Structures are given as C-alpha cells and as structure tokens.
Amino acid sequence: MKRFDSPLNSNQTFNLPVKTLSSLGLICALLLSSGCSWLSPYKPPITQGNVMTTESLQYLQEGLTKDQVRQLLGPPMGQDAFQPDHWEYIFFSTEGDIYAGISEHLDLEFDEDQMLKSWKRSAAKKQIIKDRGFWGN
C-alpha cells in the first residue's frame, strides 16, 4: 500500500505573514463596523382611513341620511360620543403609484333629524418624521 504524505510534515506549521493578517483583520473590522448602514430596510406604503374618490364625494348632498352616507363613504373614522351629529373621514397614503401621497379630511355635520346638513373637505394636516436610523444620522 502506498501512503500519501502531505507536503507539510507533522512538525511544520503554516504561518501567514503579520502584514496579511493585520490587513485582513482591518478589513473585517471595517465591514463589521459599517453594519447594514448602506442597506435600507423595506418600508411598506402606509394607507389609512377611507378612500374618498371624487366620484363618491360628488354624490354627497344635503338631506342624505346617516345610513346613506355610510353606504357611500364607509364607516367614519372619527365619531364623537358627545357629538353624534359630527362625523370625520380621514384618508392618508404614502403609496405614490396609486394615490400619489394624498391626504384628505372630510367633516360632516348632521341635523337633529339625522340628515346631512353640511360638509367640508380639506387637505389633512400631516407631519411625517423621517426615520434617521439608529445613530440619528
């Protein structure tokens, strides 16, 4: 039987030069210290509230009942227990492809007979705070 001998004898050791080891250590330290700061996490689009289309808002008219308004626009986002005749609809989206960053606010007022008395449409006041990451940069 033939025996295979390795090029290194059992009493020999394999040493890398100190310069190579230090540069390899420096590269590893730089990669670890940078972490994932050059990668940005996925941020899903945010869509909140009821979608208010111009078509559905065109059907709003004085004299509609609360049930008719609910069928037209959906349930209100804000319904105060102390002011049951005041409804608020709010819509906000960061999805640029479909809604292009729309933010809307609709205030509805009903009279004592539960009929729509007036409504006011305005751009919702929003404040978006940009996430500056772990280090605040």
TrEMBL record:
Cellular localisation: Cell outer membrane
Domain of life: Bacteria
Sorted UniProt keywords: Cell outer membrane, Membrane, Signal
InterPro entries listed in its UniProt record: BamE, BamE-like, BamE_dom
Gene3D superfamilies hit by this protein: 3.30.1450.10
TM region(s), chain numbering: none
Sequence similarity: Belongs to the BamE family.
Function as written in the Swiss-Prot or TrEMBL entry: Part of the outer membrane protein assembly complex, which is involved in assembly and insertion of beta-barrel proteins into the outer membrane.
Protein's name in the database: Outer membrane protein assembly factor BamE
Species the sequence originates in: Thiomicrorhabdus heinhorstiae
